[in-house]
Amino acid sequence: MKRLLNFIDGQFRPPAPGRYLPNVEPATGRVMAEIPESGPEDVDAAVAAASRAFEAWRKTPAEERSRLLLRVAELIEANFEDLARLESEDSGKPVALARRMDVPRAILNFRFFATAILHAETSAHMTDDRALNYTLRQPLGVAGLISPWNLPLYLLTWKIAPAIAAGNTCVAKPSELTPMTADRLAALIGEAGIPPGVVNVVHGPGASAGRALTSHPKVPLISFTGGTKTGADVMTHAGPLFKKVSLELGGKNPNLVFADADLEQAVATSIQSSFSNQGEICLCGSRLFVEKPIYDEFLDRFLAATRKLRIGDPLEPATEVGALVSDAHRNKVEGYVALAREEGGRILTGGKRPADLPERVRGGYFLEPTVVAGLDCSRRVMQEEIFGPVVTVTPFASPEEAIALANGTRYGLSASVWTRDLQKAHRVAAALESGTVWVNTWLLRDLRVPFGGMKESGVGREGGFESLAFFTEAKNVCVKL
Ligand code: NDP
User: Fold this and answer.
1) Residue 282 annotated in active site
2) Of the four listed, 103, 108, 188, 470, which is most buried by Cβ atoms within 10 Å?
3) Which residues of 72-108 are buried (b: 16+ CB within 10 A; e: fewer)?
4) CA dist., res. 121 & res. 123, Å (int)
5) Closest Cα to residue 98, out of 354, 224, 276, 248?
6) Is 9 left (phi over 0), alpha (psi -120 to 50) or beta?
7) Is pLDDT at 1 greater than 90 in this prediction?
8) Tens digits of per-residue pLDDT, 58-73?
9) Arithmetic mean of pLDDT over the chain
10) Rounded-to-integer distance, Cα 352 and Cα 389, Å
11) What is the arrangement of strands in the sheet containing 124-127, beginning at the earlier edge strand?
12) Which atom of ligand 1 is closest in space to residue 151's alpha carbon?
């Protein structure tokens, strides 16, 4: 069986405690590999390697850093199929989705930041004829990068690429549930010629390896993507050390469908935004609000399309809904389905483990796409992030009511608005408490735009020059004339 190792100072090394954890394939329930159960000693070694590498890396010309990052992108591309398959096996997501989204986006992340640093500008401010101020943007040192299990390679590269493009070195801690593509990426980074110590990968549980990183005094910057509760723990440890922190956290995203929307498009895209990656995307629209005149028709079409989704072996190219990431996570999602019933909701479709799965995946963590109606918006199922294939539907009577319902949670990550009325679209978009608003679309991402959450969905923005700003420190130099 494959045994993963940490990647420290350009070499694969066993964890200091010598202990390993099983890594399970969610579609089968079988152990597919062992991963290091790293702790603070491993994080210390990785931070020391990254600190040693920093001085030379920060002085490496941007053109050279860019060339090396582009080489990583090429190597990911050369290993496209292997990575797609590995991501699917490790996380339970359909291989078709990994091919369409995860791997292409990992390539793009490296290309995007490799070229962005060639176009970076800085600002100068003249103080009348008395002084010239100019801004230096300098890397901080060792960046701590912590990523979740839902989009493992996509989100890890979204952090590593800008961090090292900007001249930092880094220690990455992928989720212990999905370590496989991070391990492959480490090998490709070595193969690309990125100097030893610039990128280090430490595997292991969040509570030990992750926390060792957030509380490490020699790590001045933390980029974290994960749940809101964990984000609070990251802040608790990083805060007293005055680290620069970016938090991309959970969501309970509203999807507002107005009566004048293109119904066909709204239904087709809402199926994607509700159930892509089994609903395990932070940007999934888990609360559907539909304007009363079209509520019944929308619901009929939406339910019909939900029932048609093909659940099955994630490695089959035609599969649209794969397995949830773990048994524990499926239990949590099923708990919310039971709670929906207790809270007075009606399960219109789904809610069960699918029957008739192919032989290979009978032991996997599958759950049918589930639609719940009839819940009051104050209920826990309408307020808490479920992060699974469960969506609620609720009618509304006016734009004002839709906005109030959409804003009525502690989250504020993303929202979708479906309407053909341009003025209404702009008005509603401006009123939504949400870091991203999509109008007549979902998950259309331009890497240049600011990305992040309001309220308990996060702190800070990443994306484009916002990422490069986060991974650098602005220093003003004032020269008297
Ligand atoms: P978690 O918060 O459980 O874990 C995220 C990462 O943090 C993992 O690597 C985890 O390690 C690590 N971790 C856990 N505890 C600590 C700790 N105390 N200190 C430091 N690191 C720790 O999230 P999930 O992995 O369950 O991911 C799902 C969540 O991520 C959802 O809430 C989702 O909304 C959110 N998310 C947000 C996105 C955004 O852009 N806003 C994008 C994608 C997901 P380990 O898993 O090994 O314990």
Assistant:
1) yes
2) 103
3) bbebbeebeeebbbbbbbbbbbbbbbbbebbbbbbbb
4) 7
5) 276
6) left
7) no
8) 999 999 999 999 999 9
9) 98
10) 11
11) 124-127, 131-139, 472-480
12) 43
Distance CA 21, CA 35 (A): 5
Counting runs of H as helices and runs of E as strands, what totals does the chain give?
16, 23
Atom of ligand 1 nearest to the CA of 230: 2
Give every strand in the sheet of 30-36, ordered side by side: 2-3, 30-36, 20-25
One-letter amino acid of 461: R
Q: Whose CA is nearest to atom 16 of ligand 1?
A: 206
- pTM attached to this predicted model: 0.97
Burial degree of 59 (CB within 10 A; 0-12, 13-18, 19+) = exposed
Structure tokens at 70: 């582009």
Ligand 1 centroid from CA 274, angstroms = 20
> Could you read off the pLDDT of 419-473 as tens digits, one per residue?
999 999 999 999 999 999 999 999 999 999 999 999 999 999 999 999 999 999 9
Contact assessment for residue 225 and residue 148, using Cβ atoms and an 8 Å cutoff? yes
Ligand 1 centroid to Cα of residue 221, in Å, is: 17
Under 8 Å between Cβ of 305 and 271:
yes
